[in-house]
Backbone:
């Protein structure tokens, strides 16, 4: 019998990102970043300019952060321990929306925190990539964890048999982001590992339908 499978996002699920991105924008680029759940382009403003930042500028800054500042990131409370516990019961892989060239850096970053897991990189909605992972592992049961509602919508459409947990471990943005559970695209919404771990274990053991 194949082991169950957990496919988890990284940023705001395993590691804090936006808080460290905000601090770097502040000190290195004189950019204010309001963590209120708006899309990045609407949340950032240069302090020495009245004009809005372009989408290209924003994505260039985000790319620069992942190129040079990943060392700033810190684990979400309980994430490292939860992944270790889950790995006793299931295979665990990471599905992260980074360019493929950053796969090794993300793998190394997680390993330094004590999370040894295979990393899959992706761009855009995650349903297709999740489907390919499911096809490779062929688990009897699988759970997908992500902090972004559109990825749960994509997963629900393309991999409807996978259980889906909407999880955002960053308190500054969790209350503001669209909720995939409320939209009907996730089976649950839990934003801390102390409550998420029991839910995941019950789901992986087939105690939840």
Residues:
């Amino acid at each position: 019998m194949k082991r169950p499978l957990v496919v988890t996002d990284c940023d705001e699920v395993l590691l804090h990102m936006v808080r460290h991105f905000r601090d770097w924008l502040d000190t290195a680029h004189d950019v204010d970043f309001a963590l209120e759940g708006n899309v990045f382009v609407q949340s950032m403003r240069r302090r020495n300019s009245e004009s809005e930042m372009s989408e290209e500028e924003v994505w260039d800054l985000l790319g620069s952060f992942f190129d040079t500042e990943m060392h700033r990131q810190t684990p979400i409370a309980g994430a490292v321990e939860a992944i270790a516990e889950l790995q006793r019961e299931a295979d665990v892989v990471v599905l992260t929306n980074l360019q493929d060239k950053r796969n090794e850096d993300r793998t190394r970053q997680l390993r330094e925190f004590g999370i040894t897991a295979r990393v899959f990189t992706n761009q855009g909605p995650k349903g297709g990539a999740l489907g390919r992972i499911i096809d490779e592992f062929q688990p009897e049961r699988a759970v997908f964890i992500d902090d972004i509602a559109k990825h749960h919508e994509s997963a629900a459409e393309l991999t409807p048999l996978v259980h889906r947990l909407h999880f955002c471990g960053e308190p500054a943005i969790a209350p503001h982001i669209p909720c995939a559970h409320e939209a009907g695209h996730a089976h649950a919404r839990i934003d801390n590992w102390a409550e998420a771990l029991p839910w995941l274990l019950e789901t992986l053991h087939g105690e939840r339908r």
About this structure: The longest helix spans residues 55-68. Residues 27 and 179 are 31 Å apart (CA to CA).
